[in-house]
Specification:
With about 350 residues, the protein is α/β, with parallel strands linked by helices. About 40% of the residues lie in helices and about 15% in strands. It is built from twelve helices and twelve strands. A four-stranded parallel β-sheet has the order 4-3-5-6. Strands 10-7-11-12 form a four-stranded parallel β-sheet. A two-stranded antiparallel sheet has the order 1-2. β8 and β9 form a beta hairpin. It is globular, with a radius of gyration of 26 Å. The N and C termini lie far apart (about 85 Å). The C terminus is likely disordered.
Amino acid sequence: MRYEWHRRILMIAIVGALIASAVPRVFGAQDTDTRRTVTDEVGREMKVPAEVKRIVSLAPNLTETIYALGLEDRLVGDTDWCDTPAAAKSKPHVGGPQNPSIEAIVALQPDLVLATTSINTIATADALNRVGIVVYTSDPQTVRGMLDSTSHVADVMGAPLEGAELVGRLQQRLDAVHAALSERPMVHVLFVVGLQPLQTIGQDTFIADALRWAGAESVLLSKQKWPHLSIEEVVRLQPDYIVFTDDHSPGASADLADLRARPVWRDLDAVEQGHVVNVSEEAIRPSPGLVDAIEQLAHELHPEAFAGMSENGNAKFETRNSKIETGVIAGIPSEIGEECSQCAR
């Protein structure tokens, strides 16, 4: 009898111990799994850690956005093309935006990889997903889309307040430009993407939308995103201004003296009148610096609208985000193709 009693007590103790050890494991898995479910801008649903501490950026515009948010300490790697601000060049590089090294990305052990449709490939995102790395892809198509993407990136990084503050400042600057130009007629411009061959922008690009914010529109109406045209066509269209971006690529930019030395170009009214603008290369990247380029263009194309503005009211010089340094970035390889991946540059 005594033996049976001790045996029952021992069995109860063993079962209790097993239950006690099992319950924490079951409920602990639920309690510690604090990942958030998010959907990126191309519709992919994913689980993101509650605290994103290690990020790899696969595009220069996203790298710039991280710095503008003040979250650069979380950036553990970026691409060979990421050089704005200059500090981004010192981060470990994982290769080019279109052909990054999956092995290099994995080695950095990121909680999150940021990509964008305008320069990265689906194959890269799929390859990273297969090895268990979360990829959030942005898809900004307009200036407001860039602001939305900035907010989304801040949210997925767990920094919604920083995102709201940055986007609020950028929106205020855009509103100021819009108010200054609200009564001004649009200026017709030729926005030069490349000179050899001559290439410009279509109506459905975020650059065209940025031009509208700056009080301008493309002189060429085209449904193609990056149409080519001849210099004879430019002569027929006679743009009010010709706009280039600061670019180190040979044959991708020109100044007034250069154009006045070129046959046919020198006969354009815009060249004769000195209406040639070299805008910051921020104009071809959907990142916070795009607002700087819009302000610069607005001042260049509509100087009379800002003539009475004090220096403190000149947003271009006074309210630039201190996290972003002025400068230009490396040229865009022409072989990237018709979809013009420089949008993310």
